[in-house]
Every structure is written in structure tokens, then in C-alpha cells.
Design goal:
four-stranded antiparallel beta sheet, Immunoglobulin-like, about 160 residues, binds copper (II) ion, mainly beta, globular
Length: about 160
Amino acid sequence: MFRILLSTCLVACAGLGACSPGTPSGSDTAAVVAVSDALCRPTPVGRQTTGCYLTLTAPADDRLVAVSSPVAGRGQVHESRMESNMMMMRELKDGLPLPAGQAVELKPGGNHIMLLAVTEPLAAGDTVPLTLTFATAAPVEITAPVGQPDLTDSGHASH
Ligand SMILES: [Cu+2]
């Protein structure tokens, strides 16, 4: 009688274990968003904000939802657009869509990362650690060099 009760317990316990909300079976192949061409502008004299640019390629549909850096009070994902002949920019509250397999360029005059309340002036040659947070994929930490983006037509054509 005792033995029967014991075996029942073992089965019940094993069953509970199998049902627990553990790690998904595919966790060892977690999708990683590829990051390339990262660059942050030097902070303008007397300013504590700057823009960063990079190219993101997500393996599956995702969104860039947050950016942070130890050198800035906060980071935001911005879009730029013309309104009444003025270049306006605003925060993308829902993040930046990253279609699967498509390289999404953040660049001057377009979508970009904005660093606010930068603690120390950033000059060409410095580096900026950035943590990129995505809706689905694991966060990615990168180090972006500081420099002026190449805005010339020839530079753009060479991409
Ligand atoms: Cu901005």
C-alpha cells in the first residue's frame, strides 16, 4: 500500500515538472539582431544631445524599442521628417519596425538614435557604449565610434 502511494507521488511530481513554464525548447537558438555601421556624432559645443546612426538587420519581424548608454541620461529612437519646410524630429513611441531579414538604416536626416543629457562632451575618436533593446530579440550591446557622418553624395553612393 505504501509503495503504491509513493509511486503515485513520483508520477505526479514528474508531471508537474513537465508542465512548469520553463524555458522554450528553442532558447539556445535565440534570434540576434545584426548591428553594423554604428556611429555617434560629436556633441555640439554647449549641447548635451547627439545623434547615433547604425544599420539593423533582424532575423524575424521585430522592433527597436529602447536605447540606453552609460554616457547619456537617456536614449530615444527618433524619426525625422519635413513639416512646413522644417526638419522636425520626434520620438517613435512604439519603436522602430524591423522587418525580417531587411537592413534598416538609421542615418542623418532619417530615423536615428538620440542621446539626451550626455554627461561628458563626446569628441571624434571617443567611443559610446550602446544597449539596444528589441521587442522580441535579446538586447544587443555595441560600442559606437564618435565621428562626423559622411554626408557627401559620393560617400552615400559608395554604400
Ligand atoms: Cu533626434
